[in-house]
Amino acid sequence: MIKISPSILSADFANLERDIHRIESADYVHVDVMDGLFVPNISIGIPVVQCIRPVTRLPLDVHLMIDRPVRYVEQFCDAGADLVTVHVEADTEENIHAAIRAVRAKGKRPGVVIKPKTPAEAVLPFLDEVDLILVMTVEPGFGGQKFMADMMPKVSAIRRWIDQRRPECELEVDGGVDAVTCKTCIEAGANVLVAGSAVYKADDIPARIAQLRG
Ligand code: DX5
Ligand code: ZN
User: Fold this and answer.
1) Residue of 32, 35, 131, 178 marked active site
2) Ligand 1 atom with minimal separation from the 144 CA
3) Is 131 one of the catalytic residues?
4) 128 given a catalytic annotation
């Protein structure tokens, strides 16, 4: 079963509660946190996670595009994050392990993310510890970019490793996923699809969420 994680980066932040209720037929709420340092953009952070936690029954899938995420993962967990993903490029391997352990110690689900230029092998040191691996299909920082189909061999390689070593781990893609590219992602082995503009620009959001399931 394919899961959909709509990104609220494409929501209307002045009407965030309304826009979260509009995606109640999805599986997760994808929250893009940007620090203006790891990526060239600034978005939302801990107080917003805290405010949206009580307004939805959906788990919060918090994507940390921040430098040295180990500094903040516990605060995001306490604010109500259910899944917390950290970029492998954002710190040393040792500190990424520490961030994963800190999320687990809070009783939440840790994950790792790789940017388009990062090879699939970069997830291997973390594969046995995480509940989700996220492969970026755009350069992180902005919604509405073009899907990078050349990331699919990475998705397929990681799918094989997950099936061999950790079948309970989810495999997510993020960036440029729409009603056409969702099929490519599913064929490559992804089981969680993030979609921002494809969801929020749709006239009928529940129908679009259903369509993205492939
Ligand atoms: C990009 C973010 C994505 C983004 C996806 O840095 O991580 O989650 O919101 O937006 P779309 O689906 O519009 O590419
Ligand atoms: Zn994201």
Assistant:
1) 32
2) 13
3) no
4) no
Question: What is the structure's pLDDT at 26?
Answer: 99
Please tell me the predicted confidence (pLDDT) of residue 101: 98
77 CB near ligand 1 (under 6 Å): no
pLDDT, residue 154, reads 98
Task: Judge if the beta carbon of residue 69 lies within 6 A of ligand 1.
Answer: no
**pLDDT on residue 23:** 98
CA 106/CA 76 separation, integer angstroms: 10
**Domain extents in the chain:** 3-212
What average pLDDT does this structure show over 69-80?
A: 99
Helix 181-188 crosses helix 152-165 at what angle (to 10 degrees)?
40
Measured in Å, residue 30 CA sits from the centre of ligand 2 at 7
H-helix or E-strand spanning residue 157: helix 152-165
- CATH superfamily, with its number, for domain 3-212: Aldolase class I (3.20.20.70)
pTM, two decimals, is 0.98
- What 3-state DSSP class applies to 196? coil
